[in-house]
Amino acid sequence: MADEKEHGEEFKVVDRRLFGEDGKLREMENAERGQPAPAASPPPSGSLNRPPTAPSSREGPLGVHEETEPVFEAEADFEMLVSYLSTTAMFQLGLLPGPGGERISPDLANARRTIDLLGVLERKTCGNLTAEEAQLLDDVLADLRMGYVEMENRLAKKRK
Asked: Which of 30, 48, 73 is where one domain is finished?
């Protein structure tokens, strides 16, 4: 550390987390940085509107407290499974941006496998779902299949 001071190298730790330890949005810090406060995204539909518990904190390797993923209070259910698989397929189709907002290139082979898994789920649960669950699965499959065909056509046009 003495060598670093001699070379004039200093570092500054800036807390860029959007939420404070109490779980509330840190609006003053955003205003101070000249950034607008992030807009709240609309919650997903259905029973996934459950609020997560406050993010837990753990001490990382450098002694710095790191926030971990929020923990959902409710247990997994059918709607959560369909949502997880459909979101995965949307990422694989390149319809959703990556975690940093970067564009993800389509992976049609894996997208098709994920969509096919949802189809297997539909066949194997036929007659055992509520009307809402059956409608959700039907709607999700229709949207994903259309998205797959559209992406396949787009990529085919680019190759020509």
From this structure: 73
The gap between the terminal CA atoms of the chain, to the nearest Å, is 58
Residues 6+ apart with CB under 8 A from 140: 82, 86, 118
pLDDT given at position 29: 43
d(CA 108, CA 75): 31
Domain range spanning residue 114?
78-159
| Dihedral sign from CA coordinates of 29, 32, 34, 36 | positive
CA distance 83 to 133: 11
| Residue type for position 136 | L
pTM (2 decimals)?
0.54
